[in-house]
User: Fold this.
Amino acid sequence: MATIFSKIINKEIPSDMVYQDEYVTAFRDIEPQAPVHILIVPNKEIPTVNDIQEDDEQLVGKMFTAARKIAADEGVAADGYRLLINCNQHGGQEVFHLHMHLFGGRPLGPMLLNR
Ligand code: 5GP
Assistant:
């Protein structure tokens, strides 16, 4: 199912895009939770981690390669950053097009678990 992220990937609606290739697109989160908050999204519409197939393994790898490049470009690679993927209701997923959050630019503290 197409979400707003497909429209961003296809440049039908504006975003602050920082990276795009034939596999993935990355753009700044509209409600940043850290000085650097970027969403890394496969161009292919995969709703959740639950929907990843073996055929998608190369694509998932491309998400991590993009994360490494973007972290370097954003100047957060050396200090460090956090990659996060939410899945479904308990994971807090709001947009059902697979995406990896890249947070950085300040100490992020312990894992974001509400107990
Ligand atoms: P999730 O909770 O699904 O892991 O995260 C979805 C993220 O997408 C949220 O952090 C939210 O701020 C971001 N987001 C939702 N709609 C838009 C949009 O139209 N543009 C951008 N750049 N980010 C969005």
Summary: The chain has a mean pLDDT of 96. The chain is about 25% helix and 20% strand. The domain at 4-104 is CATH 3.30.428.10 (HIT family, subunit A).
